[in-house]
Input
Amino acid sequence: MKLTLGFSPCPNDTFIFDALVNKKIDTEGLEFDVVLQDVETLNQWALEGKLDVTKLSFPAFFKSLEYYTLLNAGSALGKGVGPILITDSQQEITNEEINQASIALPGVNTTANLLFSFAYPEAKDKRFMLFSAIEEALVNKETDLGVIIHENRFTYQQKGLHKVKDLGEYWEERMELPLPLGGIAINQWVKRSLALKVNELIRKSLDFAFKNHPLIPDYVKQHSQEMSEDVMRQHIDLYVNNYSLDLGDEGKLAIESLYQVFLELNNQEADDEDVLFL
Output
């Protein structure tokens, strides 16, 4: 049987899925039609239920509960992993100034956007663009502030940019929970027995990668050609951890808490039929 599988070319995703898609583990008769796209594209597709198995940001997952259920393996959660609000100025900036500023964000359905709104609910001048374009937008003074994710956490200072607030730290201080960034969801048309099998294969794929770490697989390098191996390794170490193997009770509580924040910011109430987890 063949399932469509979408994830990003970022090192954390290619590290997790390398052994699965390149058959370094036994896939037990399952085949995967792999699609690599930036996460915001995957988020948009999730709203349409396009793929069978997909990486997605948690706000996109919350918006697509009619189609998807979250797998237990493959998620990105942790501490010290959050998006960072940055600017090109060394001067301190007040909350009121932030509320009036233009802010570049990596997509309306991203966790970065949700966390920014959690910290600054009054800020309205949002400008959505590809995550990799945000640093240059600030350097070129096309926006006052930007929220960066992924490997840009490791590069923004090299471009003369400065941190205003670590939005992940803000979440951790307020909620005392790890920060959920993104997960792997499976379409509800897939039978539960098959979904459990897919979940176990993802866990085995990541377990294989961990056993060979810190070796960076060629599959990761192939899709991160402009990134140094040191940054690839930092990226993997930051976003892939024990929560990626198994959400556990704390991981699920963190996701449920983020869901409540999502509902409150969107003036919505939970549906009794909503099911988050497989």
Observations:
- The chain has two domains: 2-78+179-265, 84-175.
- The longest helix spans residues 192-212.
- Residues 84-175 form a domain with the D-Maltodextrin-Binding Protein; domain 2 fold (CATH 3.40.190.10).
- The mean pLDDT is 95.
